[in-house]
Amino acid sequence: MSELEKSTLSKVPAVTLGFWIIKIVATTLGETGGDAVSMSMKLGYAIGSGIFIAIFVVAVATQIATKSFRPFLYWLVIVATTTAGTTMADFADRSLGIGHAGGSSILFALLIITLGIWYRIEGSISVDTVKSPRTEMFYWGAILFSQTLGTALGDWMADTNTLGYERGALVFAAGLAVIAGLYVFTNVSRVLLFWSAFILTRPLGATLGDLLDKPLANGGLNISRFYASIVLTIVIVALVALLPQKAGVHPEERRVPT
After folding, report:
1. Domain range for residue 124?
2. How confident is the model at residue 218 (pLDDT cuts 50, 70, 90)?
3. For residue 2, is it within any domain?
4. Burial (0-12, 13-18, 19+ Cβ within 10 Å), 94
5. Domain presence at residue 247
C-alpha cells in the first residue's frame, strides 16, 4: 500500500455487519466486566470507575499515538469505554442518587455537547473523518458518553419500566431493526443513523449482560460475572481475528490516484 493510500485511511474500522456484531458482544462484556469489579469484587462504583477510566486513558492514548488502524487495540479501547460506562452510570444513578432519568438526561446532554463542539470545529461528526489526534479525541469522548448513556438507558428500561432483561433487550433490538430499515430503504443521514445505532447497541448489551449475570430471583440466569466475562472476551478475540477488519476511508478521498 502506498503512502498516499495510507493517508486516506481512517483510524477506526469501516462500519460493516461484523462491526456491529463485535460491538454488541463488547457492550455485553462491558456490563458483566464492570459489575464483576464493582459488585462481585465489592470495590464499589467509584473505585470501579476510577480503575476503568485509568485503563481507558492509557488505551486511548496508545490508540491515538498509533499511525494506522489496529483492530485489537481499537476494540480494547471500545471495551474500556463499555466497562467504564457501566460503573460510571451505576455511580451516577445509584451512589449519587440521581436516578435513571436524571443520569440519562445528563449523559445525553454531555453527548450532544461533545458532538456539537466536534461538528463546530471539524465541520463533520462522521466516523470516516477520524484520522487526526484532535478528531480522535472528539470521537472517543463521544463514544465514552454514548456508552455510559446506553448503560443508564438499559437499566432504566429494564428496572423502572418493569420490562425485565429479556423484554428490555427485545425493545432495543427492535429499535436497531428500525434503524437498519431506515438505512436500507431511506436516505436518512448515515451519520445520524450511525450514532443512533451506536447508542442503542449499548443498552442492548447492558440488558443482555444483566440477563446473564443477575440472580434468578431478579430475572437473570445467575451465571458468574467472571465466567461470563472470560467467555465474552474469548468470543471478541475470535471475532476480531476472523471477521474482516479494515480501516474506513475518507469520503472525499475514496478515489486514490494510482
Report:
1. 12-241
2. confident
3. no
4. middle
5. no
